[in-house]
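Structure first, sequence second, as always.
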């Protein structure tokens, strides 16, 4: 009975949140500025990964409890390969919080995992529009462009991402310019 009442309370607060709209996501600009500076000064990839993980912690912080529940449910569904459930949760999240970049980024990722590359780009572009320094979204866009055979565009996006974080694993995909051979 207690679990039932707790569920009703959560659903009730989620319903009122839907009616009121999603609040603005927390502003992590200062913390991210510090993390980008740290990752650029990092002496090696292992140290840099710690800063990258902290960035992900901030990006994955949804604006409120209902949106966090939607995101967490989507992430759980993705981990077990239930892309239909993940898409349902992310569609709801994006409708509820249209200014939260990670909803779009994760929905793009589900489409990437499904191999639906054309469906990735509108969401990934929206995530980048909302958060231009989101290196996860930038590398996701680059990988999608590669999958679509749009290598030149992918190289530009990869370079933008690596400029922000020189330790990204995807840096290995950057093609060095060919020198004069004659």
């Amino acid at each position: 009975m207690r679990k039932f009442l707790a569920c009703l309370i959560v659903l009730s607060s989620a319903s009122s949140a839907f009616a009121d709209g999603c609040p603005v996501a927390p502003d992590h600009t200062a913390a991210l500025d510090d993390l980008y500076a740290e990752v650029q000064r990092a002496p090696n990839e292992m140290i840099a990964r710690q800063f990258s993980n902290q960035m992900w912690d901030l990006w994955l912080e949804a604006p409120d409890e209902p949106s966090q529940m939607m995101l967490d449910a989507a992430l759980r569904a993705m981990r077990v390969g239930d892309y239909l459930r993940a898409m349902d949760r992310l569609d709801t999240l994006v409708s509820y919080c249209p200014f939260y970049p990670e909803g779009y980024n994760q929905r793009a990722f589900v489409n990437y995992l499904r191999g639906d590359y054309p469906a990735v780009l509108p969401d990934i572009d929206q995530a980048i529009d909302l958060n231009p320094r989101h290196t996860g979204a930038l590398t996701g866009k680059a990988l999608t462009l590669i999958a679509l055979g749009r290598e030149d565009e992918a190289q530009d996006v990869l370079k933008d991402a690596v400029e922000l974080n020189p330790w990204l694993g995807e840096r290995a995909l950057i093609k060095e310019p060919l020198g004069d051979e004659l």
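Margin note: The CA atoms of residues 2 and 8 lie 10 Å apart.
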